[in-house]
From TrEMBL, chain A:
Residue span(s) of domain Sulphur oxidation protein SoxZ: 8-100
Protein name stated in the entry: Thiosulfate oxidation carrier complex protein SoxZ
Taxonomy, superkingdom: Bacteria
Automatic annotation (TrEMBL), chain B:
Cross-referenced InterPro entries: SoxY, SoxY_sf, Sulphur_oxidation_SoxY, TAT_signal
Encoding gene per record: soxY
Protein name, per record: Thiosulfate oxidation carrier protein SoxY
Stored Pfam families: SoxY (PF13501)
Ig-like SoxY domain mapped to chain residues: 49-150
Automatic annotation (TrEMBL), chain C:
Domain Cytochrome c residue range list: 159-270
Domain of life: Bacteria
Cofactor note: Binds 2 heme groups per subunit.
Native source organism of the sequence: Azospirillum cavernae
Positions annotated as active site in the UniProt record: 231
A GO term for molecular function: oxidoreductase activity, acting on a sulfur group of donors, cytochrome as acceptor
Protein name, UniProt field: SoxAX cytochrome complex subunit A
Known partners and oligomeric status: Heterodimer of SoxA and SoxX.
Signal peptide boundaries: 1-24
Amino acid sequence: MGSPMKIRASVKDGVTEIKVLMGHEMETGQRKDANGAVIPAWFINEVTAKLDGKMVMQAQWGPSISKNPYLAFKVKGGKAGDKVSVTWVDNKGDTRTDEAAVT
Amino acid sequence: MTQRLMERRQILTFLGTLAAAGFVLPRMAFANWDKVAFEAKTMDEALKALGAGTPATSGDVQIVASDIAENGAVVPIQAISKLPNTERIAILVDKNPSMLAASFDLTPETIPEVTARIKMGQTSNVVVLVKADGKFYAASKEIKVTLGGCGG
Amino acid sequence: MDRASVGIMAFLAVSAAAVTVAYAQKDAAQDSIEAYREALQDGNPAELYEASGEELWKTPAGPKAASLERCDLGLGPGVVKGAYAQLPRHFADTDRVQDLESRLLTCMQTLQGKDPKPYIEASFTAPPKEEMNALAAYISGQSKDAPIAVTLAHPKEQAMYELGKRMFNYQGGPYDFACATCHGQEGTRIRLQELPYIPSAKGAAAGWSSWPAYRVSAGQMWSMQWRLNDCFRQQRFPEPVYTSDATIALSMYMAATANGATMKTPGIKR
């Protein structure tokens, strides 16, 4: 399930800027806990974004992306009220989708 | 025609049938996480896995990041391509155990400017790799990672 | 060399570094750090904690199955907007000067019927404190851009301020340290970290207006109580009790000195 994302999308001069904050540990698999046991890797490895139902970004991530990831990008087109939908999938198969309207 | 080629043709036909039936999704609908590229141990291996070989250094690939990161846990990077028909932007960190941090597949509508935050274990070169018109280009920037004081 | 000596050596090295670089010119490195901090401002993961804090605020919990929505943070029951910018303050019902976290514990006790003890005793990374940190993120976020307006009108507020000033300058512990050792002079820094001069309005504002904050180093949301607790630890002082008067006094001293400055909470830090 994961915690809700924070998605902001605003359109200006025909370009929609999309900013996303995701709540995720992004554990590298390189760290050890207090008992010396390796903490297993746990990270978002796929992110997809749609604007008005159309795929506009598809990313593959590794464990080098920071904890609580932030992603920002711009797309030509879009208008106020359009729906932005972002989905992530992590390496344990957990997934989450959140939506926001373009302002 | 050898048996082997025959088999290959049959497999391709089979895949085509699956795709037609909707079992194999088109590239933009579902990505297969590129395990080989993400688990590469050297920059050459990572570039090879990404199909980039030896990318040409290009001034049209830009890395916007501060020269010094106050903390390596979060290093903001903006990767920009000025090249027409940019299809993909990847961010790699030379001295990280997992060199490939992220790879973004873009559509023609996506402006090739992507901002992300990466972890850096130590001072290192950060490489932005761009695939445009089927060719690979790259730029590199050294980012120093400092140790902090008491945390503001 | 025993552990303490190693610690002292490390500390001496740090203070030597602080002194040697203290008055260095605004160099390229400093500019670069500024650029780094600027880049962080754009997407602050504290927003994620604000969202979970808001949910905690609005969700019924505790033996009385009540939410915190009727909690009086100083501007009347249920008023969150702008409340953090006016804390700490004196509350008639408890006859105490309280900071946000101390006040939240009061509300959890009175409205929800919760025992504050587990919240006080839990480590800062344990679940009860995670609730406090998230609530602090949410409530402080509702004072973002508000002017800091702490009053010393009540005698207990004035007394708390005076106590905070004394606490700030109180020198002790194994390193014979005070808050003022690092924060009592203009223009110092440790490595590349500038140290705010807390007795000045500007320095107090730099400190007070940007906490609670998301710490990128550990990916944690820190409340002001956590920040202060860590200051005590860094001085090798005995650990203060969560929401004790010593911590509220320091907050009162900083907040009142920062009066008029703009809240930037929740902040984001290295």
